[in-house]
Amino acid sequence: MAQKCAIGLISAVAASASLSKSNMASAAADGPLTFSGFSTSPPPQQQQGSGKESGEEESDAPRRIRNDNPRTGSDGFDPEALERGAKTVKGINNSAHAKKVFERIKTEEETRQAEFAAKAKEFKALQAQAEAERQRVVYEEQKKLSQHQAQTKAQMARYEDELARKRMQAENEAQRTRNQELVRMQEESEIRREGARRATEEEIQAQRRQTEREKAEIERETIRVKAMAEAEGRARESKLSEDVNRRMLVDRANAEREKWVSAINTTFDHIGGGLRMILTDQNKLIVAVGGITALAAGIYTTREGAKVIWSYVDRVLGQPSLIRESSRGKYPWSGSVSRALATLKGGGKESASTNGKGFGDVILHPSLQKRIEQLASATANTKSHQAPFRNMLFYGPPGTGKTMAARELARKSGLDYALMTGGDVAPLGAQAVTKIHQLFDWSKKSKRGLLLFIDEADAFLCERNKTYMSEAQRSALNALLFRTGDQSKDIVLALATNRPGDLDSAVADRVDETLEFPLPGEEERFKLLNLYLDKYITKTNLKKPGLLQSLFKKDQLKIEVKGITEDLLKEAAAKTKGFSGREIAKLMASVQAAVYGSAECLLDANLFREVIDYKVAEHQQRKKLAGTDTGNKK
Ligand SMILES: Nc1ncnc2c1ncn2[C@@H]1O[C@H](COP(=O)(O)OP(=O)(O)OP(=O)(O)O)[C@@H](O)[C@H]1O
Known about the structure:
By secondary structure, the protein is mainly alpha-helical. Among the domains are: 2-94, no CATH class; 284-317; 352-518, P-loop containing nucleotide triphosphate hydrolases (Rossmann fold, 3-Layer(aba) Sandwich); 528-633, no CATH class. The chain has 17 helices and eight strands. The protein has helices at residues 2-30, 44-49, 51-60, 80-94, 98-280, 282-317, 332-345, 366-384, 402-413, 432-444, 471-483, 505-509, 522-538, 547-552, 566-575, 581-597, 605-633, and strands spanning 325-326, 392-395, 416-421, 450-455, 491-497, 513-516, 560-561, 602-603. The strands form two sheets. Strands 1-3-4-5-2-6 form a six-stranded mixed beta sheet. Helix 1 packs across helix 4 and helix 10 packs parallel to helix 11 (471-483). The chain starts with a helix and ends with a helix. Residues 1-7, 13-61 and 347-357 have low confidence and may be disordered. The structure holds adenosine-5'-triphosphate. Residues 361-364, 398-404, 455, 496, 498, 517, 528, 581-582, 585 line the site of adenosine-5'-triphosphate. This is AAA+ ATPase domain-containing protein. Pfam families: AAA, ATAD3_N. Residues 388-521 form the AAA+ ATPase domain. GO terms for molecular function: ATP binding. InterPro entries: AAA+_ATPase, ATAD3_N, ATPase_AAA_core, P-loop_NTPase.
C-alpha cells in the first residue's frame, strides 16, 4: 500500500513536473515563466499580471490553497505543496475509484499533452506565419527602401541634369553675349573700314570727275578751235576761189555782153530798116499794129484761160494743201509716173527697203516690229476682203520712228499713204473745215486704200473743251470726227503723238490699235549706230557726184575709216542710254561733220569717242535743263 502511495505521489509529482514543464514552455512563448503549482515565492506583480492564467490553471489544475505564511526552510524550500500533494494522493488512494481517478488523470493528462502539442504546433505555425509576415514586411520595407533610394537617385540625377543644363545655358548665354559683342565689334570695324573706303573712293571719283571735266573742257575747246580754224581756212579758201570765179565770171560776162551788144546792134539795124519801111508805107503800118494787138490779146487770153483751167484741175484732181507728203504724188498720174521712173532707175530691181521683206531703215524693238508687221498684213487682208479698216494710234517720245513706221506700214500693207501735220490745221482758220472735207474726199479716191497719217495729232485733235482752242479748230475737229464716225473701207487713220493723254475722248474712241514707241534699248541703239555710220560715213564714199557737182565743184572728200570696231559701237551704244533714234542719227551726223572738219578726213576710234562723249554730255545737260525747266514750271 505504502508502495502504491509512493508511486501515486511520484506520478503526481511527475504530473506536476510535466505540467510545470508544459507551463514553462508556454510561458517561454507567452512571456515570463510562471510556476504556480510549486512556486516558492512568486513575484507579486506576476501574480497580479497573470490573473487570467491563474484562473485558467484554477479551472484545469486541482485548486491550490493560499498560503499567506509559508514555512520555508533555510534553503528556501516550502514543503507545503508537497504535503498538500501527498494529502491529495492519500485521499485518492483512500478512494475506491483511485484507479479510475488515476486513469482519468492520465487521460486528462494525455489530452492536455495532446492539446499542448496541438497548441505548440499552432504556435509553430503562427510563429512561421509571423516569420513569413516579418519577412514580407522586411521585403516590403526593403522594396520601399530601394524604391525610395531609386527615387532619390532619380531626383539626384534630375537635379544634376537640371544643374548641368542651367550651367550649359549660362555658358551658352555667356558665349552668345561674347559672340554678339564680337560681331558688334566686327561690324563697327567693318563700318569704319567701309566709311574710309567710301571716302577714299568718293575722293578718287571727285578727282576723276574733275579730271574728266577738265579733259572734256580741253577737248571741247580743241574741237571748237579746230572747227574755227577749219571754218576760217574754208572761208579763206572760198574767198580766194570766189575772187578767181568772180574775175572769170566778169571776163565771161564782158565777152557775153560784147557778143550780145553786137547781136542787138545788128538786130536793131534790121528792125530799124523794117520800121523805117513800115512807117513810110501806111498799109503796112496798119497791118503791123493790128497784128501786134491781136498777138497780145491772144497771149493774155491764153494765159488767163490756162490759169482758170489749171486751178479747176488742181481743185478737182490735185492733192489737198494739208497733205505734206504722199505716195500718190500731187496728181493721179504722178504716182504711176514716179513709180515707173523708180522702176526704170532701179532697173526693175527693188531696194532692200522696198522689197517687202525686212523693215527698211526703221530700227525698232523686235516685238514692236513684229506687231507692226502683223498689223500690215492684217490691213492688206482687210483691203482684199473689203472689210473696214482699223484705226491706229502711235505714241511715244519724239524721234522714236513713229512717222517712219507709219510709212513702212503703208508700204507693207500695199496702201497709199499721205502725211499731214496737226499743227497745219490751226492757221487755216475758217478754211479748216473745207480743207478737212477736201482731204477726206481726196483720200477716198485712192483705189488701193489710203493710210492717212496725222503727225503731232495732239495739236489738232486735243480735248474740245480746252479754253485756248479756237472756234475754227473746234469745227475742224468736229468735221474730222464726222468723217471718221463710221468704220471706213477706204481710209486707215494713223495718229501719232507724244502726248496721248491730250487727245479728245471721241478721237481716242475711234482708235482700234494702240502702239507705244519707247526709246531704243541698247541693242537697238547699236543697230541705229551701225545704220547711220553706214549712211553718213561709209556710203558717202560710194556716192557718185551729181552733174552740177562735177561741173562746178572740186572733188568730194573721201572719208578714211580706221579702228571703228563692233566693240567700239557697242561701247557707244552703252553710253548713249536715253537717246532717241533721231538723237542717234544726229550724233552720227556730228561724227561726219567732225571728220570733214579734220585735216586728214580720217575717222578713227579717238575722234569717234570724242564726239560720242561730247554728245552724251550735251544730252545730259539738255536733260538737266529740261528737268529744271519742268521744275520751274511746276
Ligand atoms: N526707229 C528708228 N529707226 C531709224 N531711224 C530712226 C528711228 N527713230 C528715229 N529715227 C531717225 O529720227 C528721224 C525722225 O524719226 P520720225 O519722224 O519717224 O520720229 P517720230 O517718232 O515721228 O518723231 P516726232 O514725234 O518728233 O514726230 C528719222 O528721220 C530717223 O533719221
